[in-house]
User: Fold this.
Amino acid sequence: MGKIFNKIVYFRTLNSTNDYLINLYKKHLVKNNFIIVSKYQKKGRGRIGKMWFSDSNSVTFSFSIQLTKDLSAWQINMAVSLALNRVLKGFCVQSLIKYPNDIIVKSQKIAGILTEVISVKKTKWCIVGVGVNVNNMRFPVEIPHAVSMKQILLKSINQNTVFDNFFSELESLLIQKRNLQKNYLLDLYGGGEFVACLYKGNFVNVKILSVSNDGLLKISTKDSSIKIVKDEDVKFVLS
Ligand code: BTN
Assistant:
């Protein structure tokens, strides 16, 4: 293990690695930054109550990081997104970050991030769950926009390498923290060009101008009107 995480525990099957980790904190069984890995999840969760499909060909894990005045949940979310993008680029998969928590290749999703914050006594913990489609060759019909590394590269990928590379990228991003926002914007879908977006129920073309340390986006529409929006206000629509 590197400098940030104290312990890693492997399971064959869990309902959800996020739920398992949250329970450990709620029961006061852990006090440090922790990683939980599971080969299978029976009830993997995505954002906003969605389910997350994974099987033994995916890489699924959760980890915790203590929040401090110098490290917000959104900064961790940016670092996780960048780390995933770097890992994928290392395998020659050209991915982008779709705000706020998807990693996409063209119009398909290759990885997802679930960031949750819990308070235990006076300490706040950020619980981050990551699911990466690595060697999956088919997805359920109800998930038509998913893709795996194997489907793109047409070869099997070592799942342990994906996991190890992710944590080495994440640790270096969190230790440096320099240029997090700038680099996040560079890797962001809509960061350099106008893209379609559902804004408060209406379709508009927007360009993302900047992102704040607490996750607010500054967007510009084609008629140059500028808005500051949060994740529930916008949904970027893939063509
Ligand atoms: C999303 O795209 O909405 C987020 C998906 C996050 C999935 C991961 S898999 C490991 C961890 N455990 C869960 O139950 N969810 C996250």
In short: The mean pLDDT is 94. The chain has two domains: 8-186, 195-236. Residues 198 and 235 are 5 Å apart (CA to CA). The longest strand covers residues 108-120.
